[in-house]
From TrEMBL:
<feature type="domain" description="HTH asnC-type">
    <location>
        <begin position="5"/>
        <end position="65"/>
    </location>
</feature>
<keyword id="KW-0238">DNA-binding</keyword>
<dbReference type="GO" id="GO:0043200">
    <property type="term" value="P:response to amino acid"/>
</dbReference>
<dbReference type="GO" id="GO:0043565">
    <property type="term" value="F:sequence-specific DNA binding"/>
</dbReference>
<dbReference type="InterPro" id="IPR036390">
    <property type="entry name" value="WH_DNA-bd_sf"/>
</dbReference>
<dbReference type="GO" id="GO:0005829">
    <property type="term" value="C:cytosol"/>
</dbReference>
<dbReference type="InterPro" id="IPR036388">
    <property type="entry name" value="WH-like_DNA-bd_sf"/>
</dbReference>
<dbReference type="Pfam" id="PF13404">
    <property type="entry name" value="HTH_AsnC-type"/>
</dbReference>
<keyword id="KW-0804">Transcription</keyword>
<dbReference type="Pfam" id="PF01037">
    <property type="entry name" value="AsnC_trans_reg"/>
</dbReference>
<dbReference type="InterPro" id="IPR000485">
    <property type="entry name" value="AsnC-type_HTH_dom"/>
</dbReference>
<keyword id="KW-0805">Transcription regulation</keyword>
<dbReference type="InterPro" id="IPR011008">
    <property type="entry name" value="Dimeric_a/b-barrel"/>
</dbReference>
<dbReference type="InterPro" id="IPR019887">
    <property type="entry name" value="Tscrpt_reg_AsnC/Lrp_C"/>
</dbReference>
<protein>
    <submittedName>
        <fullName>Lrp/AsnC family transcriptional regulator</fullName>
    </submittedName>
</protein>
<dbReference type="InterPro" id="IPR019888">
    <property type="entry name" value="Tscrpt_reg_AsnC-like"/>
</dbReference>
Length: 147
């Protein structure tokens, strides 16, 4: 992205994150600008790489089914590769991110029930190289701009 985003760009992106199917006329009305301005901004944001695509979010990933948890993992440096390989085999693992701070990784899990989540947490805790975990279960998503 070669050009910095201004306030209008950020507001337009936020509206699209809430509803990528919004009509340009509706976006223009909400932003208080001309429809042609929205069309031009969208074109520029797409060509610059700020917007790389539009997507559909399925109900199963939006918290309407099952339970989601964020699991912090401290991992033995010598066993990191093996731990990541083992975690990647868990179908309920949605994301795994290396993070800074007290823990090394943040895993996002989605399980169909709290019983399955409990079993997953036990399974993860038993992986050779996982030193300790700390889990938080998602109760409600207040803002979600991730597709």
């Amino acid at each position: 992205m070669s050009q910095a985003l201004d306030d209008l760009d950020r507001r337009l992106i936020a509206l699209l994150q809430a509803n990528a199917r919004a009509a340009t006329a509706d976006l223009a009305r909400q932003l208080g600008v001309a429809r042609t301005t929205v069309v031009a901004r969208l074109s520029r944001l797409e060509s610059s790489g700020a917007i790389v695509g539009y997507t559909v979010r399925l109900a199963a990933t939006e918290g309407t089914q099952g339970v989601q948890a964020f699991v912090n993992l401290a991992v033995s440096p010598k066993l990191t590769k093996a731990v990541i390989e083992r975690l990647s085999l868990i179908p309920e693992l949605r994301q795994l991110a290396a993070v800074s701070g007290e823990f090394d990784y943040l895993a996002v899990l989605r399980a169909p029930s709290t019983q399955r989540l409990d079993a997953l947490l036990d399974e993860i805790g038993e992986i050779d190289g996982v030193l300790r975990t700390n889990s938080s279960v998602l109760l409600a998503m207040r803002v979600d701009r991730v597709a």
